């Protein structure tokens, strides 16, 4: 079994345990797993570099400056993407606290419903 298959199975197990798994999420799960594998590979490279943050860079005009290493930019982007996908797959506490689909059973006036709900939350 490949690392990708192991990671994919782990994500599916986590989602089933949370009650959020649906077979229709297969494509999103695959993208999420790919992002995680890319992150792991880049993180290993970053660690091997001694966690270098900047490097010297000479621009077209010949000026030498310090710039953030490209691998660090890639890791930051991957972190954001992983967080977004984990939200979509409801794999983190933030996503699990949010109601994914609103309950449409209330056929009354939405403004009245809002006021009523706010009253209940404030203890009135």
Automatic annotation (TrEMBL):
Q: Where is the composition biased (Basic and acidic residues)?
A: 96-107
Q: What is this protein called?
A: P27 family phage terminase small subunit
Tell me the segments the record calls region Disordered: 94-124
């Amino acid at each position: 079994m490949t690392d990708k298959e192991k990671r994919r199975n782990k994500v599916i197990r986590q989602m089933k345990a949370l009650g959020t798994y649906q077979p229709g999420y297969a494509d999103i799960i695959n993208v999420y797993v790919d992002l995680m594998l890319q992150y792991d590979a880049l993180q290993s490279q970053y660690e091997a570099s001694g966690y270098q943050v900047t490097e010297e860079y000479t621009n077209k005009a010949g000026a030498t400056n310090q710039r953030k290493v490209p691998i660090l930019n890639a890791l930051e982007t991957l972190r954001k993407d992983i967080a977004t996908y984990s939200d979509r797959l409801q794999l983190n506490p933030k996503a699990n606290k949010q109601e994914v689909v609103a309950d449409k059973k209330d056929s009354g006036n939405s403004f009245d419903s809002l006021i009523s709900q706010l009253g209940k939350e404030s203890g009135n």
